[in-house]
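User: Sequence recovery, please. Input:
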């Protein structure tokens, strides 16, 4: 279990705000000026697929091995060659390769901001029409996940790893002792906070020194108050979207939580990465923890008894007066395969991407501890390491009308890093909600 926990956690940390710069480093400038002779894929008989080289790559390797022996590969006239790139080197190596004659034909990415520069440079195949015309691709994945990696409403990727929604975790033993139930409304959450503080228990663990855990609160609050359209406007490049009343209201609710001691008095010096926040939560010093779905595997590795006996999970509550659907989720929907526009055998690449919708592919993800994003994966979850938890995650995402990609991933490195700075100021009390909004509107 420890190896699975480490894989999930390190993958999140690479994805997350703390090192979001790795995910998109240097993609914005000089891309269109790079060499364009030759062309991806050579003669089109062997296509190269770049993939992030962590422990989970065994799923993609098995898929390549299966596909290369399949009738689909034979019909399309070629095979796939998987090129595994070490995680810390992935983004810079991808960027260099994409500007060279030896560019990959297919490549792993995070969707959203991580591929924006490639799309602007004309280096991606727009998959929207292809997906719409192909029942396997159109119906094979949960719609909210398929759409979450989009750019301006167009599909440029096919889901190829497990889902990672942000979940409200709670300590069941603390809740039982104080006769509490997970909150379904914001008022209930505030009432729980008051009861916990009276019992000298911090309501929420928060790794505020990393800042990216702070972001999860704003993501959910903005969604619940104004719906997914509010951030979608910002993601599409309209900085005035930060001025939406939902953003100010969310910032005001954050300030109220901070001022009320919902995160304790020292959360800005507590880290998730070094295990501080998970320990505070597992040891009962904090009753709840808003965190990505990898929290289960993190706790299983660090505090296995707590993970198995006392870790509870629930959806983020609704906010009274808000227009956002309580079924919406935020987080990292999944990773995606995208196709280089210079590919010589697009039919072969599309045939390979369909493999990600297969039962065999989904089974391999489940065996690794992931929850697949395929539309027919629910029947496989009984074999997951924790079937109850896997089913909760799957149902949460399957029923979600919208799955908002983590803001830092959606905006890309340059804006994401600046946004983190402003979020850190808001949570630390160094800027007011109105100052936070004004600062974000000025981000470029």
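Assistant: Recovered sequence (444 residues):
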């Amino acid at each position: 279990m420890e190896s699975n926990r480490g894989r999930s956690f390190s993958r999140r940390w690479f994805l997350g705000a703390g090192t979001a710069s790795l995910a998109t480093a240097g993609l914005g400038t000089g891309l269109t000026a790079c060499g364009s002779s030759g062309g991806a894929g050579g003669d089109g008989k062997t296509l190269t697929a770049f993939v992030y080289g962590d422990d989970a790559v065994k799923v993609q390797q098995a898929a390549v091995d299966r596909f290369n022996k399949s009738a689909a590969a034979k019909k399309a006239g070629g095979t796939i060659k998987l090129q595994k790139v070490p995680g810390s080197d992935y983004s810079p190596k991808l960027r260099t390769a994409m500007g060279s004659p030896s560019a990959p034909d297919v490549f792993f990415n995070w969707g959203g901001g991580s591929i924006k520069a490639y799309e602007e440079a004309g280096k991606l195949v727009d998959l929207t029409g292809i997906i719409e015309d192909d029942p396997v691709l159109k119906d094979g994945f949960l719609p909210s996940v398929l759409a979450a990696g989009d750019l301006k409403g167009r599909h440029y990727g096919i889901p190829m790893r497990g889902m990672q929604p942000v979940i409200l975790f709670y300590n069941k033993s603390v809740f039982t002792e104080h006769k509490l139930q997970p909150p379904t409304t914001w008022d209930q959450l505030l009432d729980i906070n008051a009861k916990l503080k009276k019992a000298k228990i911090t309501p929420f663990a928060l790794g505020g020194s990393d800042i990216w855990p702070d972001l999860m609160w704003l993501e959910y609050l903005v969604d619940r108050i104004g719906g997914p359209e509010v951030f979608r406007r910002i993601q599409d490049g309209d900085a005035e979207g930060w001025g939406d009343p939902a953003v100010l209201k969310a910032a005001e609710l954050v300030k109220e939580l901070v001022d009320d001691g919902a995160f304790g008095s020292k959360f800005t010096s507590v880290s998730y990465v070094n295990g501080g926040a998970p320990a505070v939560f597992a040891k009962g010093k904090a009753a709840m923890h808003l965190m990505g779905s990898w929290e289960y595997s993190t706790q299983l590795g660090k505090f296995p008894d707590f993970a198995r006996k006392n870790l509870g999970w629930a959806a983020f509550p609704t906010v009274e007066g808000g227009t956002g659907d309580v079924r919406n989720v935020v987080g990292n929907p999944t990773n995606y395969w995208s196709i280089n526009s210079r590919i010589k055998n697009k039919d072969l690449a599309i045939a390979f991407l369909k493999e990600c919708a297969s039962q065999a592919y989904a089974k391999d993800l489940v065996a690794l501890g992931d929850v697949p994003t395929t539309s027919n994966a629910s029947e496989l979850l009984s074999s997951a390491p924790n079937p109850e938890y896997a089913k909760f995650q799957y149902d949460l995402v399957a029923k979600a009308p919208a799955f908002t990609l983590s803001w830092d991933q959606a905006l890309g490195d340059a804006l994401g890093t600046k946004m983190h700075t402003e979020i850190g100021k808001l949570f630390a009390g160094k800027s007011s909600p109105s100052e936070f909004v004004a600062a974000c509107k000025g981000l470029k």
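The chain has a mean pLDDT of 90.
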